[in-house]
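Form P-L/3: holo structure prediction, ligand inosinic acid.
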Amino acid sequence: MPALSVFGAQWGDEGKGKLIDLLAREADVVVRYQGGPNAGHTVVVGHEKYVLHLIPSGILNPATVNLIGNGVAVDPMKLLEEIDGLRARGVRVDGGNLRLSALAHVIFEHHRVIDGLSERWRGEGRIGTTGRGIGPCYADKAARVGLRVCDLLEPDLCRSRLRAALAEKNALIERVHGEKPLELDAQLDRYVAIGERLRPFVADAGAEARAAHRAKKRILFEGAQGAMLDIDAGTYPFVTSSNTGANGIAAGACFPPRWVDRVVGIAKAYTTRVGEGPFPTELSDATGERIRKQGNEYGSTTGRPRRCGWFDAVAVRYALDLSGADGWIVTNLDVLTGFPEVSAAVRYRIGSGEVRDWPAQLPSIDAARPVYQSHPGWTEDLTGVRRYEDLPAAARSYVEFLEREVGAPILMISVGPERDQVIQRGRIQPT
Ligand code: IMP
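OUTPUT (holo model):
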């Protein structure tokens, strides 16, 4: 029975939140398996706008169980804020529909502080992180000095391990970065108290996901960030600290890779990126500015203006290939209305040669110059269109061109922020 993976196929912010929310209506279980509060999924339901950072998008559907997997970096203060915020708006959130892996690593205040200080230290070489403590938390996980959610539930253990961690982190904060250390007792008391509040949600999320699969439940794996920010396959070091595609599911949710039946990527009809790092099709001109304005391209987590440019078929082809995607969903097609021409990179020129495949190493990506193919634009508003044949001919021709260049079927087209602003073209759900 079906397990569906949906992930971002660019540098994040592909509009996953809305689509995952839409697909979650057909899911019994929605699972986050990587990333942390660096993600910001905006979902619009009626006149209400929700920005979810840690809680899976299925939370807005009362019958869906939402799992936060072991691969997620959990900032418990942010999680509790999010729970309180949703409850204040009448959304049900309890230990029955939100399950938090006991094995997930915890983001502490010192991780957030060190995230900011490390960026300052790197100066020109900064990554442009979201400042949410993601990198330092995953670094501690890999160094085997992190604390997990289960550790917060044992006050004595939590105090002794946090005391040991803070001794080192405070030395770093004070002696390397010249800043004020964190106050030990206040931190200990705070996190022990937080552990108590989290207790009702804590579970063996991996076991629950596997049991759900055995019970033939419909499971949706919700990717955060995008494939080009993947720590292994992305534009390292300008990446996030987790495996962002379907490749992250096995480790991040303790879910067997053979059990994922269908894999679908999501990409915008153009490209955006926040933070530093390579972006071959970036437009630092009036066209880029126009995309930013028409697409309201400002980060939902940090509010930063996003870098904008044309669609990059080389990058999306690579992203879908990495996860073995069955097809993809194109979002924000409506944003391109009014451009006299719309372009997409189909190859890169590097030196005197041309490549169709993503060059995995950074110096080559920096040297890559996109080879564009232009298409006539359209002037019609697309936001009310619900059937493919009702799209203007030029928009259809652009969609079919993207499909050809990327080499995978476009299963759905999104033409606005509301859940119903979609055009169905193919099968997304597994059978
Ligand atoms: P970090 O994940 O905060 O460490 O940031 C590393 C890189 O990933 C930076 O370029 C961020 O801007 C980017 N990033 C992290 N989360 C998101 C996201 O949800 N959308 C887009 N970019 C993200």
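COMMENT: The first helix runs from residue 16 to 24.
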